[in-house]
Amino acid sequence: MTGKIDTTMGYRRARKTMATAMGRWQMSKQQHRLDWTRLSQQLLLGLLR
Question: How many domains in the chain?
Answer without folding.
Answer: 1
